[in-house]
Amino acid sequence: MNIAFFLIPKNEVAYIQYESTMRQALEKMEYHQYSAVPLLDKEGRYVGTLTEGDLLWKIKRTPGLTFTGTSKIFVNEIELHRNNIPISINAEMEDIVSKAMVQNFVPVTDDNNIFIGIITRRDIIDFLSKKHIY
Fold first, then answer.
1. pTM, two decimal places
2. What is the pLDDT of residue 29?
3. Which backbone phi and psi does 107 adopt, to 5 degrees?
4. String of b and e for 89-100 (b: at least 16 CB within 10 Å)?
């Protein structure tokens, strides 16, 4: 089965530019109620996943940081603790299932390593449960 069947395209995915501020990231994550989001560079390549935990560690390790101060910290200054490895749109179903076991979402890239969307663990589980393959 082609994994494109599960793809949520980039234009429907909340993501954060790697050059954004911490405050922008906090506000986007709060608005969408996500605990993790993909990070993209200026060229649209996937560079990592930002989590609530990453933000909390940055707050803890930055004495005197206020919410206003988060406008002066850039996402690319925040240490990332989760390494969601992207998968090619040409990957096999087995590859996506193994990644989804340890990631809430799997970033998907095209042949030029440009981020094109995500596949969620929820969608995979939903599909497999309807096929009674578990």
1. 0.87
2. 96
3. -70, 145
4. bebeeeebeebb
